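Bug #77: duplicate submission created two jobs. Keeping one. Sequence:
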Amino acid sequence: MEELRTLARKLYHLFIVGFILVLTIFVVLLKYEPKSEIYTPIIADEITSTAIWKPKDAIAEIPNMSETVKKGYYLIAETSKYMGPNAESPEDRYSGNNLACANCHLQKGAQAGSGSWVGILERFPQFGGRGNKIGTIQDRINGCMERSMNGKMIPVDSDKMAAIVAYMDWLGEEVPEDRKAEFKGYPKIKIPNVAVDLEKGRAVYQKECIICHGENGAGVLNAVDGKSYTYPPLWGPDSFNDGAGMNRVITSAEFIKSNMPYLQATWDNPKLTDEEAYHVAGYINSFSRPHKANKEDDYPNKKLKPVSTPYGPWADDFSSEQHKYGPFPPIMEYYKNEYGITKTK
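Kept job's structure:
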């Protein structure tokens, strides 16, 4: 009998302990509140991920530009009007032709594969073989003014220069690191190991280029002012001069492959083949254009001269004809073997 009472007491104590444990757990669960983590919302303007970032639409953004950036925009978009032959004041006429900077730097400098200005300020100062020195972004702009625009230098301390640089800086705001490479220069092409075939180039021009640039390469004037160009001339007196980078077949072919026909081709979805771009570039550059004085002073170290530079002197014995029309791989091979220099243009 005593054993039964002892067992009953143990069971009772066990029951009480179990009850207290269950009650304790219940109370804890009842009072428990999950610990909330601090959440900081992501502000849309701060997002620069590859998935959503796009180059700036300058025309749409004009109302939001600062006055300096806006001035730079108009200088590159309507160059002839504001610092070219049509500028109201003669002292503002730095450009010598009626091209706009944006005729070649497409989407007002925002288009990849067209010598874009997106992120360009990060790449300067940089060494330039043409002057054989470290150059500033202002030097690079003035190189274009003297050659592509067939004009004269803009004073580096001028309001115009400051505005153009400010606009370029604005274009590069918040560009993601993994998108910067695509906006550098022009994508490379596989250079054919043949000379330019002018007949093949003419055929491509007739098929793909003539609708915008005309039979005689004179381009199409702007219907509003009749002075600037909707589609720029590719040769003739109002085009870039013979010291410009576009007067080199390889450089011209790289630009054409990545951007032409206009609104049909992009650097990552071209329409022309490398060969078509190559031959039509040679065809375009077979015509006359304004002459740049003192070109013989370019590239003080002649070994650094691009192989498709059509004017001498050179650090080799290849003919001027071959430097103008190719084939270029033999010249490149010569520089590799003779000087240990690897050339891509």
